[in-house]
Specification:
With 102 residues, the chain is mainly α. The chain contains 6 helices and no strands.
Length: 102
């Protein structure tokens, strides 16, 4: 889950226009927040043994993380999309207060 899910193209798809200077900072913040939210949602769905296994997987190379999560969380794609929609909605609601503060 370390890949950037929200990109400048994502912002454009949602009709959000950010200056090129502000994009890197905003995208870093959005993807970090998104990763935290997805992680929280996912860990709620895992039992203790799966959580321990997740920690071991994270401590390793992490290369198989997405496959591991997809096997154990059948609705992972829906969780990710829901969290993206929520986060982009929050961004749109607060666009005026965010502009110029990055």
């Amino acid at each position: 889950m370390n890949d950037n899910i929200i990109t400048s193209d994502t912002l454009e798809e949602y009709g959000i226009s950010i200056s090129p200077e502000e994009q890197p900072t905003l995208l870093d913040h959005l993807n970090e927040t998104l990763s935290e939210r997805i992680g929280a949602e996912v860990t709620e769905q895992l039992d203790d043994d799966q959580l321990a296994e997740l920690l071991v997987t994270q401590e390793g190379s992490g290369k198989n993380m997405n496959a591991w999560l997809s096997e154990r969380i059948p609705d992972l794609k829906e969780i990710i999309q829901d969290e993206v929609d929520i986060l982009i909605g929050e961004l749109a609601e607060n666009a005026n207060s965010i502009s110029g503060t990055l």
